Amino acid sequence: MQVMKNKKCVVLLSGGLDSTTTLFYVLSQKYNPTCLIFDYGQRHKKEIYSAKKIAQYAKCKYYVVKISFPWKGSSLLDTRLPIPKHTDFKKNTEPYLPSTYVPARNIIFLSYAVSLAEVLSAEYIFYGANQIDFSGYPDCRLEFIKSFQKMANIGTGLKLKNKKIKIVAPLINFSKDQIVTLAVKLKVPLELTWSCYQGKRKPCGVCDACRLRANGFKKAGIKDPLTK
User: How buried is residue 45: exposed, middle or buried, by Cβ count under 10 Å (0-12/13-18/19+)?
Assistant: First the structure.
């Protein structure tokens, strides 16, 4: 992907493998990123801690935005709901939304990112969406990104300034092992990342996020520092 150098941008940073690799990709392209981290009532704070550590490691300015989903609607928000195991996902042959899907989460996150980008006069928003090795979330697909970008450029003050924001998901068509390989190439501090839906001392190893990550490292022939 060809990018313009020395430009401000906003990066959605969750602390996971994909968003962190996206951040370091942006840095490798000589962008000046501001990171946006969300505390949205998720069942553990470990990913927020990881995201902050990663932003500090990369020497990037960051904002932690605290929002609330009082209506819950996801096992990531409601501790009364169990986190499904990877085997539970495999049992379903029909298209479905796993309980870890947070309704409209990326729509909300990207809306904040557009607001920040407008204030910063940033032309790009980057986020680590992936539609190859993922859990089937509808807001991680290229169709969604294109539609949201069109809406953002119509419904903000950018139109009056004759400017546009480009929403970029550089990993959208990467397999998880390709992401791991790229992360190593970019010298991503993998030991600081956190993908597990649980917030324990070590990854649970059985949730969908853990299994997708584990399979990626295995196929890439690289040892995950979190499971050593």
Answer: exposed
